[in-house]
Specification:
Strand 2, helix 2 and strand 3 form a beta-alpha-beta unit. The protein starts with a strand and ends in an 8-residue tail after the last helix. The protein is of the alpha/beta class and 307 residues long. The longest helix is centred in the first third of the chain and has 19 residues. The strands form three sheets. The chain has a seven-stranded mixed β-sheet with strand order 1-3-2-4-13-5-14. The protein contains ten helices and 14 strands. The protein folds into two domains: 198 residues, Periplasmic binding protein-like II (D-Maltodextrin-Binding Protein, domain 2), CATH 3.40.190; 99 residues, 3-Layer(aba) Sandwich (D-Maltodextrin-Binding Protein, domain 2), CATH 3.40.190.10. Helix 5 crosses helix 10.
C-alpha cells in the first residue's frame, strides 16, 4: 500500500550541502552493485513539490501512488516536500527515485542532483500543459498596471516558485520598480491569495492554477478583483527520475506514467490547471523543453540560495 512521509530532515542542511555541490562535485553516489533493481530497497520513493499544503496533496497523490504501484509491482512511498530545496537535496542524496518539481525547482534539481525529466501532464490537445502567472488587485484599485505597484505592497508566494517569485520579480525588474515595491513572501500561492482577499496587501500574485482551485473551492470571488498582469504560458511540472537508476528502471517508470488514464490525474489537474485529453494524460518531456525557465534563472542570477 502507498505510504507517505514529509521531506523535512534534510531541508535544514540544504544550503550547506547544495553550496558544496556547486564547487564541483555533483554529490550523487552511484548505486552499489545489485541495489539498482526494478524495486530498489524494496520500494520507490516519489517526491512532490509543495505546490499546496501536504494535507491537500496527500489524498490526491495517494491515488496516483497506488496506480503506479500496480503498474510497477513495487511499493511507492510518496513524500510531500516541505520546501523546494528539501526535495532537491533528497534526490541529490539518493533519497528519491522519482521527483515532481516545479519548473524553476527542476532547473536546480537538474544542476545539483542531475534529475532527468521524463514526463509531464498533458492538456486537452495532447501537448504539455501550461499555466500562467498573474498579479491581481481589488476591483476599483488605483493600481492598473505594473508601474503603479511602485510604493505599494505585493504578496508573492515563496522563494523558489516560478510563477510566485521568479516570473513576477523579473517583471518588476524590467519595469525598473523592483526596489520600490514592498514585496511580502506569504509562504505559498494560497497564502498570497488569502493576503489579498483579507486586505493585507495592495496586490498579490495569483497564478492560473491557484485561481482555478480557489474559485472551485469558493475561497476567491473573481468578480471582486482585477488582474493587471498575466505572464506567458509556463510549462507544467516535469516529473523526473534519479540519474542513479538503471536505464531499464527509468524506462519502466516512464512507461508507467505514460500508461496512466485521465481519471488517475484528474484531481491533480484541478490544482495544476490542466484538463487531460480522453487518453494519454501524460506526455514525454526533455530538459530542452524547460530552456525558457533556465534562461529566466540565469537572467535573474538565481542560485540555490534563492530557493
Amino acid at each position: 500500500m502507498t505510504t507517505f512521509r514529509t521531506i523535512a530532515a534534510l531541508a535544514a542542511t540544504a544550503a550547506l550541502a547544495l553550496g558544496a555541490t556547486a564547487c564541483g562535485s555533483d554529490g550523487a553516489e552511484p548505486a552499489a552493485a545489485g541495489e539498482d533493481t526494478m524495486c530498489p530497497d524494496g520500494k520507490l520513493r516519489f517526491g512532490v513539490e509543495p505546490f499546496e499544503d501536504a494535507e491537500t496533496l496527500i489524498p490526491i497523490y495517494e491515488k496516483l501512488g497506488t496506480v503506479l504501484e500496480e503498474k510497477l509491482d513495487c511499493p511507492v512511498e510518496v513524500q510531500i516536500a516541505e520546501s523546494y530545496v528539501g526535495e532537491i537535496l533528497a534526490m541529490k542524496n539518493n533519497k528519491l527515485e522519482i521527483g515532481q518539481f516545479g519548473p524553476l525547482g527542476f532547473v536546480f534539481a537538474e544542476r545539483q542532483a542531475r534529475a532527468i525529466p521524463i514526463v509531464s501532464f498533458a492538456d486537452e490537445n495532447g501537448d504539455v500543459s501550461s499555466y500562467t502567472g498573474g498579479i491581481w488587485v481589488p476591483k476599483g484599485s488605483e493600481i492598473a498596471a505594473i508601474e503603479d505597484l511602485a510604493g505599494r505592497s505585493l504578496a508573492l508566494s515563496e522563494p523558489g516558485s516560478t510563477s510566485g517569485d521568479a516570473v513576477p520579480r523579473k517583471v518588476l525588474i524590467d519595469a525598473g520598480i523592483e526596489k520600490d515595491v514592498k514585496v511580502n513572501y506569504a509562504g505559498g500561492h494560497s497564502e498570497a491569495l488569502l493576503a489579498l482577499v483579507k486586505g493585507k496587501v495592495d496586490a498579490a500574485e495569483i497564478n492560473s492554477q491557484t485561481l482555478a482551485s480557489a474559485t472551485a473551492e469558493g475561497t476567491f470571488d473573481e468578480s471582486k478583483f482585477t488582474q493587471i498582469w498575466e505572464s506567458k504560458p509556463i510549462l507544467n511540472d516535469p516529473i523526473t527520475v534519479s540519474p542513479n537508476l538503471s536505464p531499464e528502471l527509468r524506462n519502466a517508470i516512464k512507461e508507467a506514467f505514460l500508461d496512466l488514464k485521465p481519471a488517475d490525474v484528474k484531481e491533480i489537474g484541478g490544482y495544476l490547471d490542466f484538463n487531460s485529453p480522453s487518453s494519454n494524460p501524460v506526455v514525454e518531456v526533455t530538459s530542452e523543453d524547460y530552456q525558457e525557465v533556465k534562461d529566466l534563472a540565469d537572467a535573474l542570477g538565481l542560485t540555490e540560495d534563492d530557493l
